Amino acid sequence: MFVRALACFSLLTLLLAADPIALIVDTDAGSDDLMAIAFLLTRPDVRIEAVTISNGLAHVPKGAANVLRLLALAGHSDIPVYLGSVTPLRKAAEFPAEWRRVSDELPGVHLPNAGRAPETMGAADFLVRRLRAGASRAHDFGGRQLGDAQKFAKEAPFG
Prior knowledge:
42% of the residues lie in helices and 11% in strands. The protein is α/β, with parallel strands linked by helices and 159 residues long. The protein has a single domain (2-123), classed as Inosine-uridine Nucleoside N-ribohydrolase, Chain A. It is globular and about 40 Å long. The two termini are 29 Å apart.
């Protein structure tokens, strides 16, 4: 959570690089992740390339709407948002309904209307295409190069 402890402290070493680090943020759109995204949007050494929404604290469509509204508030409506699976990828128990309601509705938080919808391509298809296209300087939240993910994307029997 908290966007994987704010991309783990190991990402800090990447943030010190001269060129902005391109990140693809995968989030369950909980309030902790929204705060982390807002923080990342303020960083001149970080460029959010895209946001993918996973099933988790918020329901995927409502979480995407909240992220789009946050991006609009921050003046970053150019960042694409992709929807992931609306069901958990693993058969795990979902978060309690009340937690999900709060993440969906964000009571007391006032964000502008996004004026746009998420991308029509799904998150998985976007990630496969992005990795196949080459992920120069792409890293996971542990700060590791995405070489294995690139290899998977090139060898994947789909897309």
